[in-house]
Amino acid sequence: MKNKTGVLLGRLMRNILRSPDTIITVAIMPIMMLLLFVYVFGGAIETGTANYVNYLVPGILLITIASGVAYTSLRLFNDVKSGLMARFTTMPIKRSSILWAHVLTSLVSNTIAVFVVLLVALLMGFRSSAGLTDWFAVAGILGLFTLALTWLAVIPGLTAKSMEGATAYSYPLIFLPFISSAFVPTETMPKFVRAFAENQPVTSIVNSIRALLGEESVNSDIWLALAWCFGIMIIAYFIAIKVYNRQLN
């Protein structure tokens, strides 16, 4: 059994390049939210920072990724329903290559979408004093977050009965940053909301990215962020592989 992940990745990336509206669609919603919160709500939100767009960008990047991974579910669903997945499994290729091709495609396409959103944020006044090492750390966290959510996306992509079912799981992921420190400090929230906001994965990830971009101390948030990303990724990976193997047998 040969590992043909690169060949399969090339097939998926060619499909995306033929339909660049996929990446545009992923980037549009976060960009609209960025514009709305900065230019409409920004003046009424007190975050203790001089530049609200700097405060907002980390959460918007996570929303971009959460929007993008829904397309992984959709692509997998289409491969399963069209019978293409079944044909792939009869070929002399490593079975896991099929899933990894979808996961790596998600990583590449989401990287492009995040880059587009960052460019718009720069035009809106986003600035960072972060050094090269800090930017690499931010890229690493965003990459892990993308892999974690993508492996989650694989599960409904393999099991959904409809196109809507394959993508619906992403809606709670997009909503999650709203109940975190992504848009406002958690100290401003009611106690029961604050308790949830401070103990869910998005807050620690957002706080870590914000601290790195502002050259501030990341304290324990970065370890919580890494723990959440690795934990979700490992659990989702094993569930996805189990579902995949069960469908093939």
TrEMBL record:
Coiled coil segments of this chain: none
Designated name of the protein: Transport permease protein
Cited Pfam families: ABC2_membrane
Domain ABC transmembrane type-2 residue range list: 21-247
Record carries keyword Transcription regulation: no
Organism whose genome encodes this protein: Planococcus dechangensis
UniProt similarity note: Belongs to the ABC-2 integral membrane protein family.
Domain of life (superkingdom): Bacteria
Taxonomy of the source species: Bacteria, Bacillati, Bacillota, Bacilli, Bacillales
